[in-house]
């Protein structure tokens, strides 16, 4: 996934960035970078989600957006493993999401999904 940093990464690791033209924030896990640089990154979400917390077949929208103090993530389920780990396509990248319990149907692959989390961790790749 490719982002543009909107501001230099702060000393406490907070990063303000744009993905597909939408502003978002996360915790930077790499060397400090200047504003304006475009980088390939991986996003991680430390939270686990019960299926009831996930918005299946919700309205499409920006892949990442701010929702008050939280971050809204939207994508398409690409895969689900036997342990309930989802692989979700968000923009041009993949994000792993840990689920709790059984999915509402046997095969949610291909369905739109939305979720809200308090923290994204951002890892630069290839630099």
Summarize the structure.
This protein is mainly β and 127 residues long. 0% of the residues lie in helices and 54% in strands.
Compile the SSE list and pairings.
Elements: E1 2-5, E2 14-19, E3 22-28, E4 38-44, E5 48-50, E6 55-56, E7 64-67, E8 70-80, E9 85-90, E10 93-100, E11 112-117, E12 121-124
Parallel strand pairs: 3-12, 5-10
Antiparallel strand pairs: 1-2, 1-4, 2-3, 4-12, 6-11, 7-8, 8-9, 8-11, 9-10
Distance between the termini: 14 Å
Structural class: mainly beta
Question: Total number of helical segments?
Answer: 0
Q: Name the helicity range.
A: under 10%
Task: Give me the count of strands.
Answer: 12
For the sheet with most strands, the description reads: 7 strands, mixed
What general form does the structure show?
A: elongated
Uncertain runs are none
Radius of gyration (CA) equals 15 Å
The string of secondary-structure elements, in order, is EEEEEEEEEEEE
Explain how this protein is built.
With 127 residues, the chain is mainly β. It has one domain (2-124). The protein is built from no helices and 12 strands. Strands 5, 6, 7, 8, 9, 10 and 11 form a 7-stranded mixed β-sheet that branches. A 5-stranded mixed barrel has the order 1-2-3-12-4. The mean pLDDT is 93.
């Amino acid at each position: 996934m490719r982002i543009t940093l909107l501001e230099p990464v702060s000393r406490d690791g907070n990063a303000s960035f744009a993905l597909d033209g939408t502003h978002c924030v996360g915790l930077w896990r790499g060397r400090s970078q200047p504003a304006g640089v475009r980088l390939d990154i991986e996003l991680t979400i430390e939270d686990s989600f019960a299926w009831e917390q996930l918005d299946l077949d919700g309205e499409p929208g920006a892949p990442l957006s701010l929702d008050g103090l939280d971050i809204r993530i939207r994508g398409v389920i690409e895969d689900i493993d036997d342990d309930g780990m989802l692989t979700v396509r968000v923009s041009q990248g993949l994000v792993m999401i840990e689920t709790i319990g059984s999915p509402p149907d046997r095969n949610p692959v291909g369905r739109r999904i939305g979720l809200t989390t308090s923290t994204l961790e951002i890892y630069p790749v290839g630099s």
